[in-house]
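We include the pair:
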Amino acid sequence: MSAADISSVREVNFDGLVGPTHNYSGLAVGNVASMSHGGLVSNPKEGALQGLLKMKSLMDAGYAQGVLPPQQRPDIGALRDLGFSGSNGEVLARASKEAPQLLRAVCSASSMWTANAGTITPSIDAPDSRVHFTPANLQSSFHRYLEPQTTGCVLKAIFRDEQHFCHHPVLPATPAFSDEGAANHTRLCGEHGEPGVHLFVYGRQAFGDVRSGEREPKHYPARQTLEASQAVARQHGLTEAQTVFAQQHPDAIDAGVFHNDVIAVGNGPVLLYHEMAFLDEEGTLDELRTKMASPLIPVRVPLEAVSMEDAVASYLFNSQLLSNPDGTMTLVVPGECQEREAVWRTIQDYLLAGNNPISEVVVKDVKQSMRNGGGPACLRLRVVLTEAERAALSGRVLLTNALYTDLTAWVERHYRVRLAPDDLADPQLAEESLAALDELTQLLKIGPVYPFQLG
C-alpha cells in the first residue's frame, strides 16, 4: 500500500442506535451498573438522542462516524420458541405473569453496545486483502444470545460487496467458545493503514492444560474464552506473528470488569490501561513490543491513582481513543469521569500532562447507556476501511448532517420518554417498535434485516 493509500485509510466508528425498548432490567451478571440500576424507569428517547448527539459531535470534529440499527424488540419469536402461544398480546401477557425475567430479556436494547457486535480484521491485515467480520455469539447471557442472527444480517446488508468484505459464521454458542466480540479485542499499529497486531483478551481457558499462572475469577463469570479468540483469529487468517492472547486479570472481573474494554483501550500505538487489566502485565507488553512494527506506547494507570471501584463506576477506560491528523489523540470520556475526583485528577494530571499522544479530553453525556453499564466505547464498533471500501458500503449509514436530522426526527416520532419494566408487556409498545424499525430500514436504505421483514 502506497503512502497515499495509507493516508486514505480511516477508522470508522459505527455506533449503535439506542432502541425503542431501552429499559433497566438489571440483566447482566457481573455488570455492576446494570445490576444496581435494575427496576428503574428509563427514557428511551433521551437515550437515543444522547447517542446521536455523541455521533454528531464526533462527526463535526472530523472523525468518520457510522450508524448501526437496533434489534427487533420485543423478540416475541423467542418467547414462542420457549412455549408461549397465542396472539402477540397474549404471549406478552403470559410471559409477564409467568416469566417476567424472560420478558425483560427479550425486550433488552443491549444491541446498542455494538462493541459486542463482532470482531473485525481490516483488509491490510488479512491474507485475501478483504475486511473480515465474525458476529459474536454472546452466549454468556440469554438477552444477548438473541442478537447474533440479526447482527449478521445487518453487517451483510451494509458490508455487502464480496470483493471487499468477507463474513464468517458465528462461533458455536457453547461455553467453550464464549465470544463477546470487539469488547475483548484491540488492534495496535503505527497508523490505521499500516499492518497491525491484534490483542485478544480472554477470561478463561476451556480446553487442555491451563497455562502456567492462570486462574479464574471467583465471583463473576469470565465471558470470553481463549478458544473463542483463537477461532476468530483463524477465521480471519491471522498468523501467530499478528496476534497476542492475554488473560484478563480475574480480580478485575470480580470487581465488575466484565469486558476488557472496561479496563483498557487501545488505538494506533497507544495502549491506555489500568494496572489490573492483565494477569501477566509485563508478558503482555513484551509480546506486543516484539510483534509490533511501530513502538508500543503503553499508558499505565496505577491502582493508587484510580481504584477498581472508581475505574468501574466512571468507565474511564471505556472511553473512545481517537487519532488526530497531527499525531495527537483525543479521549472521549463519559460525564461520570468528572464525578469521581480521583479519576478527573488522573485525567488532568497524569494523562493530559503525561508523555503520551493524548492531548485532549472530551466529555459526553451518555447517562441512559451508562446506567445499564455501557460507556462511549461500548456504543461503537470500530471498522478500519480504505477509501475504496468506504465507497463500497451499502445503504445510508455514514453520518451526515442530513442523516442526523432524519434520525433525530425519527426518534422524536417513535420513542417514549418513560419506560418502566412493567410497561414491557404492553402490546402497543411492540407495535410501536416494529413500525419504528420498518421506517428505519427505509431511512438507512439497508433493505429487510429483521425477522418480521424477512418472514
User: Anything to note?
Assistant: Residues 283 and 290 are 11 Å apart (CA to CA). Confidence is low (pLDDT under 50) at residues 28-34. The longest strand covers residues 10-16. The chain is about 35% helix and 15% strand.
